[in-house]
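Quick look at the format.
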Amino acid sequence: MSDMARRRASRSAAVETYVDHRVGALVHTAGSPSTRATLARLRSAVGQAPGTVPEVWSVTIDGAPGAPRGDDPTPEERAIHIAMTLFAIHQQSRGRSMHVQGRGLGQAVRLLEHVRGVSDGGVSPVRRRFDALATASSMEEAAHHLRGLVGQFRSAGEGIGLDYGALAADLLDLQLPTRSQAVRLRWARQYYRLAERESATSSDEKPGPDGAAEPAEETPE
């Protein structure tokens, strides 16, 4: 790996760690008045530019990785702001965490289709939204489509969780010309490889409450 590739990987890892820590702290203190207030403030900042809502600076700006250059938000700040505010929407009124480590965006989309019984014969509305996100020409457009997906994840039964640290890293890489295609490839692999596993195990597994597969009960010998 070249020095430049290592630096890019380090940037992504730093953003993922930052968001994972922030979201984890909110999940850990779920139900407390201060956490409910923080989540409400984050929801009010959805669609706003990073840094324009002072009430959320402590969870989206304080200690954020990346070196500011000029007055525009850094790619890291954009990625963190979008991920944190969308998590607040996803988590609203949920008794369990919607931050599921290890579940990529492509996996969550496929699980949503599975929960809704989408046939492989056509392109579902959620898949069209996913495709629109993958081909978005700006971060504003990407955030718009991502918010639509999160709303669908939230409304599916007990909710389909998502790894928000990994999502933030994806959003950072999506802004980097040399990394954006890698993000799209990663999402595609997550989506189709999960589909392959579903097909291979459909007779032995059943959907869990969040759309994940749970092993069927074993028959005693």
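Next, a different chain entirely:
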Amino acid sequence: MARIAGIDLPNKHAEIALTYIFGIGRTSAKEICVKTGVDPEKRMNDLSAEEVNELRKVIENEYKVEGRLRSETALNIKRLMDIGCYRGLRHRRGLPVNGQRTKTNARTRKGKAKTVAKKKK
């Protein structure tokens, strides 16, 4: 089992296995395979040690992945919250940030519905 960027990659096609690394999607995985000359259809267990090292070098040098990417994202959100901009306030309140409606949907961001007691007339 190959280990790249602190992740144990499963025995799948190289192109698919690379997507298990946070920050690498299908497009990036294809680009990495082309840069290193690794056959994207080859399974991870069938790759030689040199090929795995090539993949590791390209990912470390050219891509921001895993911990670095997560911390940068967290710092960007913290910066928005600190300067008090609209997006920062939405993050702080746990509401959708990008203009989605909140009257009916947005349950993923708002959490489980809290029932409000109906007032008597």
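The chain has a mean pLDDT of 92.

See the schema section for token definitions.
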